[in-house]
């Protein structure tokens, strides 16, 4: 039961569930990919503009992706993504945060290169426990069209 | 010896060094954050449009960030980043790839909210061993201005 581009509805918002952020995970990601002081060390984080340890912005993107993959991509006829626009880190991600993911299909356009595909335009968001926005982004994905019988 | 916004020159390109990609690292990142078949399993990758295991696009971003942090951010008076625009994944990242990072300062604008800061606009790029582009993005960062004596 593959899901094709026809199975996604323009204007519809999909709930992606929640992600619990731990200090250990923030430090692990920071050490590997973004070893700025406030991403790897709680004490140095305290002395920074963030007043504490915060996740790398790329780590916050990765958390969003995990929610998106688990909620919407199993069985999807997805053919990769050309990229992302308007990615904004609006509030820091901190240990103990519980982030909620949401994704809205904002447009569906024919692929310029592949007649069997269309590009899905989506607006993604993570919010914190108080409903305040933590991250927003515009994502594109290539999806296959449902084959004709 | 902090580096302030005045220490970055508009139009200058900075070399960020190289990143060697391993299969183990691709699978580890994929399992945690982007468990689509072609990011976690070499055999399933073979059957996909990528004809092999490829890194999550977010993983490629994280590799770029590591090069950028190591090359340019130690001692930088950086105050976080509002976000990214025009992120494009142009070629897949595969096990064994050696990626080269490059960053060009494309603009410096006064901060709207903090008179002691300016926003650096940068265009980043990863290329493969043949010099072909793998990823491009526009990054913004807040930097402090050099304090007056």
UniProtKB/TrEMBL annotation, chains A, B:
MaoC-like domain residues: 11-111
CDD domains (alphabetical): YdeM
Protein's UniProt name: MaoC-like domain-containing protein
Matches recorded under Pfam families: MaoC_dehydratas
Similarity remark: Belongs to the enoyl-CoA hydratase/isomerase family.
């Amino acid at each position: 039961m593959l899901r094709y581009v026809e199975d996604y509805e323009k204007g519809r918002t999909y709930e992606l569930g929640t992600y619990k952020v731990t200090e250990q995970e923030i430090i692990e990601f920071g050490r590997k990919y973004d070893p700025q002081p406030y991403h790897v060390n709680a004490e140095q984080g305290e002395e920074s503009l963030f007043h504490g340890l915060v996740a790398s912005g790329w780590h916050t993107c990765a958390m969003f992706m995990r929610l998106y993959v688990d909620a919407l991509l199993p069985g999807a006829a997805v053919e990769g993504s050309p990229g992302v626009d308007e990615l904004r880190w609006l509030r820091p991600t901190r240990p103990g945060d519980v982030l909620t993911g949401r994704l809205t299909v904002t447009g569906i356009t024919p692929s310029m290169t592949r007649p069997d595909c269309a590009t899905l335009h989506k607006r993604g968001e993570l919010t914190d426990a108080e409903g305040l926005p933590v991250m927003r982004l515009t994502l594109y994905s290539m999806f296959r069209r449902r084959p004709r019988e």
